[in-house]
Write a structure and sequence with these properties.
single chain, 103 residues, mainly beta, Jelly Rolls, four-stranded antiparallel beta sheet
């Protein structure tokens, strides 16, 4: 009988969305038990996570369109997103970022 290791998993929590063009922050802070979030966007964007109100810039981490990324966070932090800058193969396009809290 072959051995198959189990995949790591987390419980899915609250999902927020950010419709971005310019830099936009999520209105709700992450929950008191949230230490990881799942990010996915329908167009390339930059994002910033931190304490208090956040403003994303094109120097922040880049998230390609339709790529799922898991990020470690602290409870109470907030996120902001900005459409990607146009350069190289990336075209700046407004879009939506989905942020799902994991626990």
């Amino acid at each position: 009988m072959p051995f198959f290791s189990k995949q790591n998993s987390s419980r899915i929590g609250t999902t927020q969305t950010i419709a971005y063009d310019g830099s936009v922050g999520a209105t709700n802070a992450f929950g008191s038990e949230t230490y990881q979030v799942r990010l996915v966007a329908n167009s390339g964007c930059s994002y910033r996570i931190g304490d208090g109100a956040q403003t994303a810039t094109t120097a922040d981490p880049y998230l390609p369109a339709n790529v799922v990324e898991f990020v470690t966070v602290s409870p109470g932090q907030r996120i902001a997103a900005l459409k990607a800058a146009t350069n190289g193969l990336v075209t700046a396009t407004a879009g939506t970022l989905w942020i799902t809290e994991m626990s």
